[in-house]
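Same chain as my last thread, 133 residues:
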Amino acid sequence: MYHHLAPPRSARLVKERPFVWIGCHGINPSAGTRQRGLRSGVMGNHRIALAEAPEWELRDDARRIDRTFRFRNFRETLAFVQRVGELAETEGHHPDISFGWGYATVSLSTKKIKGLHENDFIMASKIDRMLSS
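reply #2:
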């Protein structure tokens, strides 16, 4: 059974500042406006955000993050991919996923801004929490 996750906010980000969720296409659904991502800042912003999901790695000149998950067999891998897909639909933020026997690689970026946004790191953290539950 899948648990509905709380609104897309990590505990640390909620404490520090207000948060505006945008989908992977760069739209704030409640305001209908486009948002800018972390690429407008310095690389340090990415490293700070990556602290929210330490198992993930920056790729493509900090335009995306990814993580490879390992499993005992194809059935476990496929179940994980299905859960990530359900989470993505719920959150409106869709990763690229490649998988095969015993592994799944999840890659996150915000397509509309062609780079990383705070939401990518929050989604990574949610995927990590989902795996541990």
